[in-house]
């Protein structure tokens, strides 16, 4: 949550020893880690959101952990209404009601729950609306992270396509050959200059039933 204190630790177990090093989005950090490999955020903000990896430059080569996605959510403000408050309007008179957004993307899972058969194909679709335009769109499936246009057989993340709604796009993830291990939660994460939002998908994979018959004379 925005404003909280957060600490990340990078620990390297190596012989001979090797210094830990955090990287964010495969680039330099905006804050400095301490000598023990800790990243300490005294008050975390949206600018700290992103992919972090624990790395080290060892004499035997360069090594890195899996990426860890740090998502920073905005603290929700309480909404209060005055008891008995009214909006005066005459019969046939139009009334404008405003809605204030925090500027983060709006992400919706089109087919939130999907059942697929092992060995067949399946397609997940999500709609995202963002002003300003999204800086990053990511599909997260099992241990994989795919951006639009990525192909990691048998997974394909399609490029964004514009919709009839201004500033809204469709994003698709195709599993060309579904496996039982693909069952579970799949995430679509969208980031713009104002923050990060996500949509959750649930994929249920079933196996085709097989029957055998025997006859005896």
UniProtKB/TrEMBL annotation:
It is found in: Membrane. SMART domains: IGc2 (SM00408). Residues 1-58 form the Ig-like domain. Pfam families: Ig_3. It comes from the Eukaryota. Its main location: membrane. It is a single-pass type I membrane protein. GO terms for cellular component: cell-cell junction; plasma membrane. PROSITE patterns: IG_LIKE. Transmembrane segments: none annotated. InterPro entries: Cell_adhesion_signaling (IPR051275), Ig-like_dom (IPR007110), Ig-like_dom_sf (IPR036179), Ig-like_fold (IPR013783), Ig_sub2 (IPR003598). One of its GO terms (molecular function) is cell adhesion molecule binding. GO terms for biological process: cell-cell adhesion. Keywords: Disulfide bond, Glycoprotein, Immunoglobulin domain, Membrane. This is Ig-like domain-containing protein. The lineage of its organism: Eukaryota, Metazoa, Ecdysozoa, Arthropoda, Chelicerata.
